[in-house]
Amino acid sequence: MSAQRVCSASGLEMDTPLRVELDGIAIAVVKDSDGEIHAIGDRCTHGDVSLSEGFVEGKTLECWAHGSAFSLETGAALNLPAYEPVPVFVVQIDGDDVLIDPTVTKEV
Ligand code: FES
């Protein structure tokens, strides 16, 4: 499996998660306020809800359902009720293309 284009970097709105699905894996793509682009698993580990419908705050994405925040850098759940991390995917930028390989997660 190789990295696939999911969107353009310039078209990604800051602090507004974009939900993409690659090979059946839901991924939340986020451009933070520093302009850095992250990709984490889109399913909250507390309940089966989409994190991309949540709120970006700095380097975190907060679940809209019960407020657990997940690190965009490590995937760690930073507060209860969620306690298990979400996967963090490696993001590649090629020109203006944002590329993600859903089989490659960051070692954190
Ligand atoms: S479903 Fe996400 S914190 Fe409960």
From TrEMBL:
It comes from the Bacteria. Keywords: 2Fe-2S, Iron, Iron-sulfur, Metal-binding. Residues 4-100 form the Rieske domain. PROSITE patterns: RIESKE. SUPFAM superfamilies: ISP domain (SSF50022). The keyword Metal-binding applies. Gene3D superfamilies: Rieske [2Fe-2S] iron-sulphur domain. PANTHER family: 3-PHENYLPROPIONATE_CINNAMIC ACID DIOXYGENASE FERREDOXIN SUBUNIT, FERREDOXIN-RELATED. This is Non-heme iron oxygenase ferredoxin subunit. It comes from Microbacterium soli.
